[in-house]
Amino acid sequence: MRSYLPVVAEQLFKDIQKTYQETSQIPDDLLIALKFVFGPSVLQALDLVDQRSVTCVSSPSGRKVFQVMGGSGRLYTCFMSCHYCPCPAFAYTVLLRNEGLLCKHILAAYLCQAMGVTQQESVSDQQMSMLLGGTPTEIKY
Amino acid sequence: MSAVKRKRYSKDIKCIFFPDDVQNGVKKLGREPSLSSTSAAKCWERCGDSFLAIKNLKSSGRKLSAVRKLAQSPASVLTNGDQCNEDPVHIAWSSSDSDQSDSDSQKQHPPRLVAQHQQRPQRPRRASAPIQSCSSALPMLSDDKEGVPVIDADSDLNDSEGEDEKDGWRQISDCESGSSDEKPKDLPPKPAHMTNVEISGYVSDGENADDTMTPSRLDTESFPQLTGEGSKRSVSDWVRFAQAMLQTPQKQLDRKPKTPEDSAKKRRKFQSGGLAERLNRLQCRQRSAISFWRHQSISDTSTAPVDRPGVLVLEVLEVQEECSMQLARCEHHQPPSTGHQHPHPLSAARACVLVLFSKETAAQLMPAPGDIIHIYQPWQSLSIEGDNCTIILNTHFSQKVYSASKLDNVSIPRAVLPAEKSLPYSLAKIFGLLEGYNITEEEEATAKQVSAPALFSLGAPGVMSRCRQSLLEAIESLGQAGSVGQDVEVVVQRVYSIPVSDSPAGSMLKPRVPSKPSSAHPVEKGKTRLCVLVQDGYGMFSVVQLPLLPCEDSLHHYSQKWQGKACLLRSIKVVQRVTRERCTRLFSLIDSLWPPVMPLRVHGNTPSSETRPPGPAPSFCYLLSGQESSVEPVEEQAVSPLYLPPTKQNLRDILQSDLKSHRCSFVATVIYKRMQSSDVGQSEVWLVLTDPSLQEEQLEGPRKRTVALCVSTSCVLTSSVVKALNSPAACRLSFRDAIKEHGVLLCVEQSVVQIHPVEAESSLESTDGPESPSQSLAKPQAQANALPQPVRLDPLGPETKSKSLCTLTGVIVGVDQNTAYSWPACNHCGSSRLEMSVQRPETFHCVSCNALVEKPSMKVQLEVFLSCSSLSNCTVKVKLQQNTIMSILNIAAFEGNEFPGYEVENVLGKEVGPLTVYVRVVTRKPALWIGLEEVCL
């Protein structure tokens, strides 16, 4: 039997996007379903969404990353084209133990995208390469 | 003997290092400051719990290796044996061990301890562990000296009988998995030293059961070194180790959820009105629903065929584990019967469904191929676009009704056949939305064609509809403003009014101060507030306080309009949550409406599918406030099936009822009223009531002919009722939801007193509307005719209660001379306000009727003591009325100014009665003393 959880997740995000576009809200049953699939991290992810903590950073070259402001104020840079987050939960729960699909930051990014509430920010190509290169966040020019 | 086992023993040996300490392990603990006895004890409690909980835990190679590492240390100690008394680890464990096990294992085994100590000192201690954790392992471990594996019938590990080698290992490791809960189960496979870092990494379930052999061999090889090598370990290592060990059970407990998401107990402040807040609330509700459901489902293990719609009956075909959830491929065991109200996706002839179980549900359910599982609402089904498959989510309410493995003679524990783990998904495969995913027009078009959303919730909380069925849900989902946004469908059970005092809404809860009843009596102002007691389909009650009634008699109008009808509540606000304790009166009314006349809905289920027998009446309800427009009947005429009308009883039945305190409704004739002030409504009003049932010729048993009723100031008496009460004629009133308490009837907040209409006389059916007052007042006599004239009263007896009416016959045995006096009164109006006429000193001028009184009548007050044949050893004092006084004084009339006076002796011994008397005071201690007043009905 193939793996179905990613399909379920994708479908849920699609549902959320569709419903949110139509009604500007996420009904309870979708929240419950999210919670069922993603577990407790949904709560924190929704909190991040409520706080509008997800920013899509783009550079002129077309590169994009998500930056998610964690609860502690730390910025997590998550990639667009694959699932990666530098947070410990991702390393542990997702990568090491394979117990969750996503960490709360990536989940928040998905939800913000579905709801269209991702903040947008432009940076220079150089800043972007610093970001992608994993250089610590403080970039000054 | 297998190395692992021996190592286990070696670890377990720690207890026997201090044989003398076994009795007082806790004391020892006290010596070690870094370890508190309570925490250790707690750890042990938890360990004990987990022994029970994780019986089926498979042994795992990693665990074994962990065990080996753990085992090293005690083994080392073992060699140095007795010198290691201060070892904190040993102290910690032995002390906590002894909490549970010293009574049995330690006392049981000392001889063996001594005997075996030389050769295999670790063994006896081992024996003690299984006693608590895994009794099936005990015989094997304590008895077989060779360490030959014994296959125990009860063991969870009857794995495969062919593999003897493995069997031995499995057994051992299983025992460990039982007892190894006391220590980290899944330490990284090759830690040479126990460090905190390694231990903190422990989160494992120990589920990797695949490679039991390898580590065990490793163990075998490594064992000889252990004893020697381990001895070099420093004490500080041990401290760290001990701390880690003591921490781990803590973690474990946190990971053993009774209901999903105990982690949500972390109180976080979410943004108000945000999604997280909403989910948190949903989650809380879901959590309690799940606990409740599990509680119920444990008691109800019936495997009766379920043909209710909405229940999925599935046979498991295949199970796999994905990200700690379990995905089961199932097929419908029996097609759900017809009658689906929802055209849900499964009613299609799709045989195969995928069901996702959360970790917690899976742990409980342990789905395995061949099992038959019921999934109760609310589940959700998610159809995957373009995949033509449906996945059932939210399967918290799942129950295994048939276990395939049970029937096999080999009782294969679930855990031995683990769900196949699916490979981790590719991180490179994102879920669509991240890269500026947008619904293309094409997709939008298809989406519109498929009008149904992919997620189909059955019985899930329906936010989509604006109308709710549940008061609780509506109230719980309200926003910060305290305003309930959604309409709620309820049944109006009662309409009543409460007096409005100076303080605004909510004042009805405050106990009235009896000392100043007349100062601000509500009726004085004539302001009353309309209240509506409503109930939803789940049995929940609420009181809706509405604005002031424009006119107090309009209560009737609203009663007719609303009471018994299904109504929509809209734009209401929550005023207060009240509990049974704080608002006993209100709850006595609610109790009278319980149990409901029809089965209630259960939260989390669609109305049609599941009902439950009503439990106890709710212990809390909400006070709401609203406008007149807040209550709107759904259908004007129809009476809701949930409506429980007040049943009118006759007084005899009410008095005979054994219920301690209850609400009752009745129609009765007021034969006497007693007011503390002249104006009815100023303060408490005492009425003496009777009805035909109490006036029957023959009454069996000690029954009363009349009953007293107190109308408290919190009960609104409408002006028409007040008028009727003030009129001298007997009036017939209907009382709704009065309280019977201690043999007395009370009218309080929620009671409604109305003039009883003439038309309703023939039937006792509950017609709540009185006719217009004038109509009913027109023939009060006609109604009273149902009673004999004069009404029959009880004779005075020792059980007579105060504020009741009775008849009395007795012989005067004394006169209260202190209270006996006479005075002149106006012979026209009877007023005693006479003034000496200035012109004619023999005559008086009546202030009341402003007339000249030439010959005032003389009034006498006389109180006498009676001796009654029906009462012995009792002092009965009666204040007599004028006529009676005259008859006993043998004076036709007092004429002239002079009162001739009388001799006490002339009065004594005279027989009076039968008198109709009102019982003012009854004192039972030190001796029965009854103060009466003769009345005229």
UniProtKB/TrEMBL annotation, chain A:
Entry annotated with the keyword Zinc: yes
Any GO BP annotation: double-strand break repair via homologous recombination
Stored Pfam families: SWIM (PF04434)
Superkingdom assignment: Eukaryota
SWIM-type domain boundaries: 76-114
GO cellular component, one term: Shu complex
InterPro entries attached to this UniProt entry: Znf_SWIM
GO MF: zinc ion binding
Keywords: Metal-binding, Zinc, Zinc-finger
Name of the molecule in the record: Zinc finger, SWIM-type containing 7
Phylogenetic placement of the source organism: Eukaryota, Metazoa, Chordata, Craniata, Vertebrata
Gene that encodes the chain: ZSWIM7
Automatic annotation (TrEMBL), chain B:
Primary gene name: SPIDR
One GO term describing the cellular component: nuclear chromosome
Domain DUF4503: 535-937
Protein name according to UniProt: Scaffold protein involved in DNA repair
Biased composition (Basic and acidic residues): 252-264
Species this protein is from: Myripristis murdjan (pinecone soldierfish)
Record-linked Pfam families: DUF4502 (PF14950), DUF4503 (PF14951)
Acidic residues bias locations: 153-166
Limits of the DUF4502 domain: 5-382
Region (Disordered): 75-231, 246-276, 761-784
One GO term (biological process): double-strand break repair via homologous recombination
Polar residues bias (residue ranges): 211-225, 772-784
